[in-house]
Design a protein that fits this description.
This protein starts with 9 loop residues before the first helix and ends with a helix. The strands form 2 sheets. The protein has a 5-stranded parallel beta sheet with strand order 5-4-6-7-8, sandwiched between helices. It is built from 6 helices and 8 strands; from the N terminus they run αββββαβαβαβαβα. The protein is α/β, with parallel strands linked by helices.
Length: 179
């Protein structure tokens, strides 16, 4: 098992938790659990390290499997993740609770990511936004470029690895001065 280093116990200690022994090895990362029931993964990602800056992230994607998988990666890294299945739910979630960053899929029913991004920029202009997209069936070859032109801080094309996601989130949080 790896050494207990580069971990951020503060997020759990604020909830009264304490460090336990390693549970098991998850692909590339040794997982540590905390008595508060949260699981954290020390970083094994170039340029990304655990700090006192674990963020509240709003994750917006209509695909439940993708949303769940991304939420697990982010939560395992120590972030507090709120999920929304569409743009309208995302805006409602932001009305109820503040977020340090948003991860936003572009292709969604009801209110697509471009519409959500425009509204985010209008209502919360300084909120860091990472836009993700796999292109989908609309044929938007340059959808991520459009998102950047409309104010997305970072973009990431699907499919991507957990490492790539964490690198982009780290850069997003640094850029947005959320740390």
């Amino acid at each position: 098992m790896c050494q207990i280093q580069n971990l951020n116990p503060r997020a759990c200690q604020r909830r009264g938790g304490a460090l336990n022994q390693p549970l098991f090895a998850w692909p590339r990362w040794p997982i540590r659990t905390w008595d508060c029931g949260q699981v954290f993964a020390p970083p094994a990602v170039k340029g990304v390290r655990a700090t006192d800056c674990m963020a509240r992230i709003l994750l917006v994607d209509d695909d439940e499997r993708v949303r769940s998988a991304l939420a697990d990666v982010l939560a395992n890294f120590g972030h507090e993740v709120t999920q929304a299945a569409n743009g309208r739910d995302a805006l409602r979630a932001l009305d109820r609770s503040v977020a340090d960053a948003v991860i936003l899929d572009l292709l969604m029913p009801e209110m697509d990511g471009i519409e959500v991004l425009r509204e985010l920029r209008r209502r919360w202009p300084g909120l860091p936004v990472l836009v993700i997209s796999g292109g989908g069936h609309r044929g938007w070859l340059n959808a991520l470029e459009v998102a950047q032109a409309l104010g997305a801080n970072r973009v990431l094309s699907k499919p991507f690895t957990s490492e790539q996601l964490l690198e982009e989130v780290g850069a997003l949080l640094s850029r947005g001065n959320s740390c």
